[in-house]
Specification:
Layout: H1 8-12, H2 14-24, H3 32-50, H4 61-72, H5 74-79, H6 91-101
Helix pairs in contact: 2-3, 2-6, 3-4
């Protein structure tokens, strides 16, 4: 039963993941606040993954988790290659990122 519970990582990246799930299901009508959150987390995570010393109180915990995952999971880095904002995410890219976001768990769908 405990294995069915979401991990701390998936809860922390829940909104980032939600945007990917919506895009993966073909929705291009992502709510503006979710778009802003996705872009902010991605931008901060890229800065942190390139320079871990860039950590500051303004960096969100979600960005820290994503940056950490980007450093640990090579597939995630590859899946996010060329993605600068949510507008760059196609359903195929969303699926690939979701598969690599937390590879030790089964996908949501």
């Amino acid at each position: 039963m405990l294995a069915a519970m979401p991990s701390e990582n998936s809860r922390r990246l829940e909104l980032f993941r939600l945007a990917l799930v919506l895009i993966g299901r073909g929705s291009r009508d992502i709510p503006h606040p979710l778009t802003l959150h996705f872009n902010d987390v991605l931008h901060q995570a890229r800065i942190l993954s390139d320079d871990p010393d860039a950590l500051s109180p303004n960096v969100t915990p979600q960005a820290v988790q994503l940056a950490s995952d980007m450093l640990v999971y090579e597939g995630l880095r590859d899946a996010l290659q060329g993605v600068e904002s949510i507008g760059d995410v196609s359903p195929a890219v969303a699926h690939k990122v979701l598969q690599n976001l937390e590879p030790r768990l089964a996908p949501a769908d």
